[in-house]
Amino acid sequence: MAYQGSNTSAAVPDWLNKGDNAWQMIAATLVGLQSVPGLVILYGSIVKKKWAVNSAFMALYAFAAVLICWVTWAYRMSFGDKLLPFWGKAGVSLGQNFLIRQARLPATTQYYHDGTVETPVAAPFYPMASMVYFQFVFAAITLVLIAGSLLGRMNFRAWMVFVPLWLTFSYTVGAFSLWGGGFLFHWGVIDYSGGYVIHLSSGISGFTAAYWVGPRLTKDRERFPPNNVLLMLAGAGILWMGWAGFNGGDPYSANTDSSMAVLNTNICAATSLIVWTVLDVLVFKKPSVIGAVQGMITGLVCITPGAGLVQGWAAIVMGILSGSVPWFTMMVIHKRWTLLQKVDDTLGVFHTHAVAGFLGGLLTGIFAEPVLCSMFLPVTNSQGAVYGGSGGKQVGKQIVGALFIIGWNVVATSIICLVIKLVIPLRMSEDQLLIGDDAVHGEEAYALWGDGEKYDSTRHGWYLSDEAMHPTQLQMATGVTQAV
After folding, report:
1. Rounded to 5 degrees, what are φ and ψ at 95?
2. Which of 282-291, 380-389, 455-464 has the lowest mean pLDDT?
3. Residue 420, φ and ψ in degrees, nearest 5
4. Cis before residue 37, ω within 30 degrees of 0?
């Protein structure tokens, strides 16, 4: 029921589809939850105790900083009018007249000699405000993923500068080229939901930035136990469930294609987790919880470039490969390749995102199903190699698209790091590295007794004098001290 005086015709124009708009905002919120609190919790829990606050804060800061940059200039660089074949013109995305009109992207189209259009303008049935919000959370999680390569030693002030610079000079290029009407988009490179734009770019950029920042302390690299495995699983669970919005929102509609994308996403993730765990059991004789999370992530990443474009059986095949190929690069090749050992990629983002993202893009070129492609506007006339015809060319296009993303991110990330290094040290001081959160932020994650300090009943929970304690309590207190 409309309230008296409200202009319902303006708020609900004829072109608005309430169901599509509701799903798009829900999908965007699910993706946002992957970062905040999902990766905030995962990062803060999977690292050594002394880096819990710093790691969580890197993710939280990136999420906030990206939003302000996104609506101020970066959205239009990614999805606006063409400046270069790989870059859009910067512009503000805050004006009412812009945000309430019908969403339209990409801004440019490719016309052929016969007058047909391979990739016509997409016009979802909801406002630009929903599109800006949806694309923001994708940009934000990309920076949060890069942070995973840099945990435990990057100067936070340098990170504060890195985030807007990388968003501007790296993310927007990949987004426009593949999604916003750039040259790779029109050439037919498929990236359904960010296997290249988000995961390949974050894995390559994280690895590159880790090289320039330098490694953690030797002591931290040798022993870096998670401070809370159960909480890490909670963050991983939020990440997994949030992926329904990550892949399910990219048809820009609550349609058949979005349903296929959500189901395929979960099939691939589950298969990959199981395969990774089986390999751990066969090779290391123990099923690793952290390994299972890594397998889950590689499955989610691998299916992303083709989530709504492949059949269920192909999602299982992709899950088998995403649970084994990145496992092999992480557990075998990493230990034998000097470069991979030299660069301190804290959470192995290169393997879980760059390798899995490239693999997913390649497999999409093989398994993309023609009927499903016809439901997804940007790749209307595409098909995978297994379906014959011109499908073999798609694999080549996928490889070229990946090479562009890799090359651009290596160069752009290196330049950004070197420029920042001129004014701000990329790495924390040695004193900060030794102490961790307390030295960097003046805060610690857990106010727990047992880190080598002297027992104080007024600070650590027993508000009784030693004389008033029960003998068992006194024994526990002195015993814990000795054990520590």
Report:
1. -70, 140
2. 455-464
3. -60, -40
4. yes
CB 20 within 8 A of CB 253: yes
pTM of the model: 0.88
Residues 288 and 278: their CA atoms lie apart, in Å, by: 10
Give yes or no for residue 425 having a pLDDT over 90: yes
pLDDT in tens, 369-401: 988 888 876 666 778 899 886 767 999 999 999
Question: Does a structural domain hold residue 324?
Answer: yes
What torsion, rounded to 10 degrees, do the Cα atoms 433, 217, 55, 331 define? Answer: 180
Q: Are 78 and 88 in contact (CB under 8 A)?
A: yes
Tell whether the model's pLDDT for residue 406 goes beyond 50.
yes
CA separation for the pair 151, 143 (Å, rounded): 13
Claim to verify: residue 303 and residue 246 sit in the same structural domain:
yes
Tell me how many domains the chain contains: 2
Rg, Å, the chain Cα set: 24
108 has pLDDT over 50: no
Burial 397-435 (b: 16+ CB within 10 A, else e): bbeebbebbbebbbebbeebbeebeeeeebbbeeebbee
- 314/457 same-domain check: no
470: its two tokens? 């029960």
State whether 102 and 24 are in the same domain: yes
Looking at the domain assignment, is residue 52 inside a domain? yes
Domain assignment of residue 199, yes or no = yes
Which residues, in sequence order, are bridge partners of residue 82? 88
State which amino acid sits at residue 482. Q
87 forms beta bridges with: 84
Domain residues for 21?
15-432
Q: Whole-angstrom Cα distance, residue 417 to residue 208?
A: 9
Cα 210 from Cα 468, distance rounded (Å)? 53
First to last CA, the chain: 65
Summarize pLDDT for 269-281 with one digit per residue, the tens: 999 999 999 999 9
Nearest to 264 by CA among 272, 275, 274, 276: 272
Cβ(318)–Cβ(339) below 8 Å: no
